[in-house]
Structures are given as structure tokens and as C-alpha cells.
């Protein structure tokens, strides 16, 4: 999970979503109270679940470690094959806009000729 969270694309996307969420909460007082209540509920459920799951995780720790190592190797290979994972969201959006704009210009040229 940490390795996925550290991918530039994922951390950048989380930052964009977090900023939008915070901005929305600040701009809309009624929505802020709903969000605050939801956050408290999620926190309570998470805390309750964590205490119940801890003994199970201790038992499964060797299996989780093996799965984690396997997943880590897979993510490394995925990162090599998909360099887009190392780009921030803003750059991907910009590159996509440029590509679409270029293709539209090509189509316009083809239609006009």
C-alpha cells in the first residue's frame, strides 16, 4: 500500500482530491457539517475494526509479508512498463490536452483539404 501511495500519479491524484475536498468543505458550511459527521463515523468504525482485526493480522503476518513482497515486485515491473505512473496528474492532463488538440488539428487539416 505504501508503494502504491508513493507512485507520483497516485500521490498527485490524492493531493488534487484532498485539495478539492477541503475547498468544498470551506465553501459550503452545510456540506462541511455532513462531511465532519461522516469523518467521525469513519474514524470510529476504523478504530473499532482495527482492534478486532489485530489478532487475525498477527496470525497471518508471514502470509501478508510474502504477499506484500510479491506485490512489490509486481508494482516495480508495472512502473517500468507504464511510465505514466511516475507523472503527476497535472502533467498527464496537459499532455492529453496537447495530444487531443493535435489530433483535432490533423482532422481539420484532412477535412479542409
TrEMBL record:
Keyword terms: Lipid droplet
Subcellular locations according to the entry: Lipid droplet
Superkingdom, taxonomy of origin: Eukaryota
InterPro entries membership: Perilipin
GO biological process, alphabetically ordered: lipid storage; positive regulation of triglyceride storage
Main location group: other
Pfam family, one: Perilipin
Recorded family membership: Belongs to the perilipin family.
The protein's name in its UniProt record: PLIN3 protein
UniProt organism field: Pachyramphus minor
Gene expressing this chain: Plin3_0
Amino acid at each position: 500500500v505504501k508503494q502504491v501511495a508513493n507512485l507520483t500519479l497516485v500521490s498527485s491524484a490524492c493531493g488534487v482530491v484532498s485539495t478539492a475536498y477541503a475547498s468544498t468543505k470551506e465553501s459550503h458550511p452545510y456540506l462541511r457539517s455532513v462531511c465532519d459527521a461522516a469523518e467521525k463515523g469513519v474514524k470510529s468504525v476504523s478504530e473499532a475494526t482495527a482492534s478486532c482485526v489485530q489478532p487475525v493480522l498477527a496470525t497471518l503476518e508471514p502470509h501478508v509479508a510474502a504477499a506484500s513482497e510479491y506485490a512489490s515486485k509486481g508494482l516495480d515491473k508495472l512502473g517500468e512498463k507504464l511510465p505514466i505512473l511516475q507523472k503527476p496528474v497535472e502533467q498527464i492532463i496537459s499532455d492529453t490536452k496537447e495530444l487531443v488538440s493535435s489530433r483535432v488539428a490533423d482532422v481539420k487539416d484532412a477535412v479542409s483539404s
